[in-house]
Amino acid sequence: MNGFRVGEDDFEVDGRPVRLLSGAMHYFRVHEAQWGHRLAMLRAMGLNCVETYVPWNLHEPRPGTYRDVEVLGRFLDAVRDAGLWAIVRPGPYICAEWENGGLPHWLTGAVGARARTRDEEYLGHVGRWFRRVLPQVVGRQRHRGGPVIMVQVENEYGSYGSDGVYVRRLADLLLAEGVEVPLFTSDGPEDHMLTGGSIPGVLATVNFGSGARAGFATLRRHRPTGPLMCMEFWCGWFDHWGAEHVVRDAEDAAAALREILECGASVNLYMAHGGTNFAGWAGANRGGGALHDGELQPDVTSYDYDAPVDEFGRATPKFWAFREVLAEYASAPLPDPPPPPPSLDGPVSAVLSEWVPLDAVLDALGSPEAEYAVPPTFEELDVDRGLVRYAVTVPGPREPYPLSVRGLRDRAVVYVDGARAGVLTEGTPTLLDPVAGHARVELWVESLGRVNYGPRTGEAKGITGGILHERQYLHGVRARALRLDAFDVASAVRAIPSAGAGEGRPGLYRGTVEVHSPGDASLALPGWTRGFVWVNGFNLGRYWSAGPQTTLYVPGPVLRAGANEVWVLELEEGGESVRLA
Ligand code: GLA
């Protein structure tokens, strides 16, 4: 029988049993000019397949407005050209440490807790999105000459909900749009997760970082036959701002990989190559133990993941340890790794001497200001990634009282009568010094990334409760939004007149850096606090002195020989220069 299929015990290609040695690499986290190199690295490690998610919110910024959906097709073509198979996980929810788990903000803002259920309004949007994106996949299935061998339904649905009707409806949508390769679900190796996330007639797989024998034993209780697969073998992990950098020992990970393969199972390394959360697309978790209802833990910009192929595309000790294990299961000798991409030829610095105050940036690129009875959320203002300036008057005369924000997500730099008065967060929502009336209060509120996992996925950003003086709500709030996407209109940024030296004040800093011979680099921002950086109009992502990440990855293809433009949008306290090395 022709094609790829799920057999009684194994996956089969053209009637022959095969083991999938797959690795995750997200096209949206790797510069397109570097895909070929990274895919060749994965082949050289011993993989025969690549897995990618598809982030809906990246591709449908507004309902019915689509952005470069074709990039998925281009990636799948690159996978085929690299001689690899492909597994596609189109969500609609993807988790993935990605803003809102991939769900558009306009959708979760509208449907709230009805997301990821059989709700017709939600499913209507999913259906329209699938009709738009799936042609990229359908024409590239293996039996049609493409690399795609399997497609996932939802993502770890059993870690979230129990609406089997919903999972079935999604599977039917995929089938109706022409997906003919096998479908599958993936879940944690727990009974309730497998019960909640899998559906009859669709292959079930499990996700774990170690303990393959136990994990597969659980899966077998639910599925007595069928190939075994660990769809996410967590060989590394991700970092949160302000927390310790997480690493996983290479030998320990290689031993866990060996255990999976010794079970006769297939595997997908999560991640094989992690890449970068460019342009502020990193998501966030909620701490607080099993309920995931505690403090916000925003994800850093790097998605290096301590993966075998690091953020720069280099082979790590984990790469060589995995290659040794995978070589034993390969059908032919493994190819050598490709030559590494060029690195920047030497360190260079740029003094960012031009400065535009935040207000002027808002004037040039922001939404019009409007007044609302109560502060609108980011969702109500249609802001995905970016910030909102809320302005409110404390009427006077009145005594000095504490000023606080209810439901602040996530962080506000506060000014009282033009002077900086402090930084508020969800956990510390009250200004240190009381405020007397009459006063004009401005709160510059920033989202640090929407929650992508657990019961609070999809929660709103901005001021979701209200602004309080003493216990009195302050009404009549003016709001103005700055979406990060506005910076795609690079010419507008260039046209804003400089107001001289910024001397550390918040705003947009600009300068140029001279590069002799471009190549991969890291960007350091000594003395800067928190914001975003663009090089030649490419948004490298968020920087934050909270660490643990201290430099940002600059893909070589972003740089050019000669002058390179650098913009830094600093939201708290800026430095003087940036350094590329
Ligand atoms: C789960 C999700 C993935 C990712 C990992 C952690 O398994 O399915 O998308 O979030 O956790 O990196």
Automatic annotation (TrEMBL):
Keyword check for Hydrolase: yes
Keyword Aminoacyl-tRNA synthetase: no
Stretches assigned to the Glycoside hydrolase 35 catalytic domain: 11-328
GO molecular function list: beta-galactosidase activity
Pfam families to which the protein is assigned, alphabetical: BetaGal_ABD_1, BetaGal_gal-bd, Glyco_hydro_35
Start and end residues of each Beta-galactosidase galactose-binding domain: 506-564
GO biological process: carbohydrate metabolic process
UniProt KW keywords: Glycosidase, Hydrolase
Active site positions: E156 (proton donor), E232 (nucleophile)
Family: Belongs to the glycosyl hydrolase 35 family.
Record protein name field: Glycosyl hydrolase
Organism annotation: Streptomyces venezuelae
Lineage: Bacteria, Bacillati, Actinomycetota, Actinomycetes, Kitasatosporales
